[in-house]
Amino acid sequence: MPKRAPSLLSTSLLSAVLALSAPALARAAEEREAWTPTATALRADAAGIALPQTVAGLSLSKSGEVSHGGSGIDNYAQYLSDDGAIQATLYIYMPSYADASLAAYMTDKAIMARFGSRTHRTAYASVAAAGHANGALRAVYDDAADGALTTAAAFVHAGRWMVKLRVTGPTERRTEVLAGLDGMLSGLRFDDASSIHATRPATFASCPAADGIDARMTGPAAATPVDIAMPREGSAPLCIRGRVDTANGNYEMLRQAGVKDGATIVPVDDAGTVLAFDPAKTGAGYQLSIHSVGQTDIFGIYDKVPSARQIAEILDGKDPQTARAGAVVAFAANGEVTLRNGDGKSR
Questions:
Q1: What pTM does this model have?
Q2: Nearest to 236 by CA among 255, 256, 250, 220
Q3: Of 53, 58, 75, 57, nearest to 66 (Cα)?
Q4: What is d(CA 331, CA 329) in angstroms, rounded to the nearest whole number?
Q5: In whole angstroms, what is the distance from residue 97 CA to residue 255 CA?
Q6: What is the distance between the alpha carbons of residues 298 and 24, in angstroms, rounded to a whole number?
Q7: Cα separation of 84 and 22, whole Å?
Q8: Each residue of 251-292: pLDDT tens digit?
């Protein structure tokens, strides 16, 4: 399995540059700067998304790329209050499996895990974005870091792109933190606002436990990109069919509630890394694909969804059946798609 990108929360939430380590297998045909500043705004050209340089008491401090340098598919911009006590980050990135509801869910889990038992969520709902009702998810967390911090986030899925806003500051300045988040959200501008997906929080229903029996790999990787047949943006209830324990953490096996033979996904972090087992397009079984920023790795077909133990081995890089992807699909910021064999040769 390829090395996975760590969570966007894997370093301090008050840090501007959060390292991701997914390999840059794809670059845009013509490399360009990720951001273009104007007199009043900062614009991610490839995504067609912009934000004012000063908004709601926060001013642009610096911007750049989190990973995939020069490709413009994984970008950040940091904003600060005048005294630096309130810090905000705008992320505009292109995961190959984009879902604002899932991004919010994984960020929620990461925040709760990172900031301790006193942290509690006080808001989690769909709100308007760029004139679109339910175009964003907004979340607020109080009493983080033993009561010292308030942190808030918002998520928008527009076309192929994800937008994530994070604002964090001292608890006593909660009003400013929320004003910063809401100001940044309302200040976002989209070249194509019609591309914004309506989204809502993920909901969960009961789900029968997986049988726990190991699967066998029975076929080669698909020859074309995999489009996972899962409802996104909170459009249908999900359920947890099992839990995966690995050396780096615990993850959930999710599927659509009430659908016995549908796809199963395993979200790995809040940066868009997702394992997916989708019913094979030809014949029986389930196709494994691993999605990350700008890339999908396609592996072989299993006769059934693998057990939690097998998925843990895949995530830990110990599964001999998935030592190397059969195909790698690279997505460039300009819309170009490159398909390579596992040996690196283009198809």
A1: 0.87
A2: 256
A3: 75
A4: 7
A5: 15
A6: 16
A7: 30
A8: 999 999 998 889 999 999 999 999 999 998 877 899 999 999
